[in-house]
Write a structure and sequence with these properties.
- This protein has 57 residues and is mainly alpha-helical.
- Helix content is 75%, strand content 0%.
- Helix 2 (31-42) runs antiparallel to helix 3.
- The longest helix is centred in the first third of the chain and has 21 residues, at 4-24.
- It is rod-shaped.
- Residues 1-27 form the signal peptide.
Length: 57
């Protein structure tokens, strides 16, 4: 019979692995999208500036 510690360890490992895969699989926006966000940011759109800073290199 599996102990509580082993079961908890396996559960945490599975959650951590799925979180790592989900975080790695996030798609980056295209260069065109980043360029459009930069133009909108320069025009004074604060949401575009926020998205640009968060998602574009």
């Amino acid at each position: 019979m599996i102990s509580i510690k082993k079961a908890l360890f396996i559960f945490c490992a599975a959650v951590g692995l799925s979180g790592a895969i989900a975080g790695f699989a996030v798609a980056r926006p295209s260069q065109q999208t980043c360029d459009n966000l930069e133009i909108k940011c320069q025009q004074g759109n604060p949401r575009a500036c926020e998205l640009l800073a968060r998602h574009c290199p």
